[in-house]
Amino acid sequence: MARRTKEEAAATRDSILDAAEQLFVEQGVSRTTLQHIASAAGVTRGAIYWHFDDKGALFNAMMERATLPFECAFGVLEAAGPVDPLRDLRNFVLEIFRVTEQNPQARRVFEIATLKVEFVGELDAVRVRRRQSQRDWMDHVEGRLRDGIGQGQFRADIDVHLVALGLWSMMDGMIRNWMFEPASFSLLDSGARILDVYLAGLRAS
Fold first, then answer.
1. pLDDT over 70 (residue 52)
2. What are phi and psi of 30, to 5 degrees?
3. Is there a domain that residue 166 lies in?
C-alpha cells in the first residue's frame, strides 16, 4: 500500500508538471495561475501545494526534469570517437537543431525558457541555467576549433572565441525564428545548409 501511495504521488506530481508545461507554452508563465494548472491536471490547488511551495518552485521543477537541446547535444561530442573537429562541430550543432525540431518536450521547454518567461525573482534560475549551458557550449566549441587549427582543418588566424560566439548567435537566432513559425522552414535542413556556409569560411586553404 505504501509503495502504491508513493507511486500515485509521483504520478500526480508528473501530471501537474505536464499540465504546467503545456499551459506555460500556450499562454506564458506570468499569465498561468496555479488554479489553471490544477484544473488542467485534474487536481486541487491543495495537491499542488503538497508537491510545490509555489509557482516558482513548480516552474523550476519542470525545468529540472527536462533536458534542453543544447544539453542533449553534448552526448554527440562524447560519443564521437577520435577527434575530427570539423565533423564534430557540424554534428554537434545539427544535433541541437534535430532535438529542437523533433523532440516535442525539449522544444516546449526551450520555448518556455526563451520566449515565455520573465527572468525575475524565483524564475531567474532559468536564465542562470541557460547562461551555464552557453558557457559549457562555448568551452566545447572553442576546444574543437583549437583542435581543428592544430590539425590544419581551420585557418590559423581565426579568433576561436569570436567564431564560437558567432556560431552560438547564428544557431540561437535560427531556433528563435523557427519557433515563431515552425512550418515556415525545416530547422534541421535549413540549419545544415547555413552551418555549412559558416564552416566553409573557417576552413584552411
1. yes
2. -65, -30
3. yes
